[in-house]
Amino acid sequence: MSVARFMALCLSHPEHGYYATRDPLGRDGDFTTAPEISQMFGEMIGAWVAAVWDAIGQPIYRLVELGPGRGTLMSDVLRVTRAVGAVQEVWFVETSPVLRAAQAAKVEGAHWAASLEEVPEGPMILIANEFFDALPVHQYLRDGRIWRERMVGADGERLIWGLSGARPMGAGLSSLDWFERAPLADAVLDQIAHRLAQAPGGAFIADYGYQEADRPSGPTLQALRRHRPADPLDAPGQADLTWLPDFDHIAGRLGPTTKVAEQGAFLAHLGIGRRAEQLARANPDRAGTIADDLERLTAPDQMGRLFKVATVISGAKPAFRTED
Ligand code: SAH
User: Fold this and answer.
1) Number of helical (H) and strand (E) elements in the chain, helices listed first
2) For atom 24 of ligand 1, which residue has the closest CA?
3) Phi, then psi, of 311 in degrees rounded to 5
4) Measured in angstroms, how far is the CA atom of residue 37 from the centroid of ligand 1?
5) I want to staple 52 with a disulfide (CB 3.0 to 4.6 A). Which of 40, 87, 202, 270 is the partner?
6) Average pLDDT in the 45-74 region?
7) Candidates 96, 132, 205: which one to mutate for ligand 1, based on the most atoms within 8 Å of Cβ?
8) Mutate which of 19, 119, 204, 303 to test ligand 1's pocket (most atoms within 8 Å of Cβ)?
9) CA of 68 relative to ligand 1 center, distance in Å
10) Which residue's CA lies nearest to atom 13 of ligand 1?
11) pLDDT tens across 112-140, in order?
12) DSSP secondary structure string, 105-127?
């Protein structure tokens, strides 16, 4: 089977799938995400949501999150946005029953959908942190003048890597020796672009990923178990599997006004430094932890540079000026 099929089964199989059966986050889990590190992350995204809402003329809108994990990001975002505006409904796009329960405990009155298509159309501000990297990816490797797809097979009880026969590929790949394609991720990105063309709104997408200029030297599938890299073929369904999305590709699908930034610069621009100072002043006994969390989220050698952010806004109105 393809790597994409393997990934889909490992992560989403209703009985044995990784996400279907557990809450993978936190210290006792397999990995940690920015919202689980500190409330400051969600508060900055909340500030971004509030700014977008204002820029698009303060409509009544739906706040949509893809792959909300424990619901921590949304609850931090809502603390900020509830103070300023008119969220009509909160929608979570989530397939895991375990995580839906965790989200219900964190955010009251939310709605759930299994895909973005099921969310009613209209003005929408969408957020997605570490969602796209969990969607199934196909991997292709150059073999002389042809392309082959990376496959997963079995040798008796043991899983092994393999290669497909020649795969016909489109033009424009002549300079590459590997590439990845995630049809489901592309379909979701196209759906977001379509909705933002129909109604005002915005989208924020963050992931551990890259831009063309710092393209990794080889295919990017990785497994994490108990906060350590693992062999993706070992213990299928019991490790987190992700890949690194290409943010230039994401921007290409979302449209020409999409901006890509490093997470550290994005959070700094929204004022996370000042928020950290404020929190430390209010909680002097936690000042050390707050400084550590800030460092983890923004420092170039931590999440600040490896994590990328894509944002797009549609239907922005000319800015309101009091003197007009
Ligand atoms: N955004 C959260 C969690 C990231 S983990 C955070 O930052 O902490 C990935 C999330 O995507 C989980 O909630 C997982 O259940 C969800 N997910 C994975 N594949 C999905 C799919 N195909 N459709 C909807 N949700 C999915």
Assistant:
1) 12, 14
2) 94
3) -130, 145
4) 17
5) 202
6) 96
7) 96
8) 19
9) 6
10) 69
11) 999 999 999 999 999 999 999 999 999 99
12) HHSTT-EEESSGGGSPPSSEEEE
DSSP three-state, residue 262: strand
Structure tokens at 1: 């089977």
Side chain identity at residue 309, one-letter code: V
Task: Measure 218 CA to ligand 1 centroid, in angstroms.
Answer: 25
Residue environment code for 108-133, b if the CB has 16+ CB neighbours within 10 A, otherwise e = eebebbeebeebeebbbbbbbbbbbb
Question: Inter-axis angle of helices 39-55 and 263-270, to 10 degrees?
Answer: 70
pLDDT for residue 169: 79
Model-level pTM greater than 0.90? yes
* Residue 98, SS3 per DSSP: helix
Residue 130 Cα: closest atom of ligand 1: 4
Which pLDDT tens digit goes with each residue over 224-257? Answer: 999 999 999 999 999 999 999 999 999 999 999 9
Q: For 135, which DSSP code?
A: S
Q: State residue 297's pLDDT score.
A: 98
Using alpha carbons, list the distances in angstroms from residue 225 to 72, 133, 205, 234, 237.
21, 16, 24, 10, 11
Q: Determine how β-strand 158-167 pairs with β-strand 178-181.
A: unpaired
Query: What gap in Å lies between CA 56 and CA 203, rounded to an integer?
Result: 12
For 168-182, what is each residue's pLDDT tens digit? Answer: 877 777 789 999 999
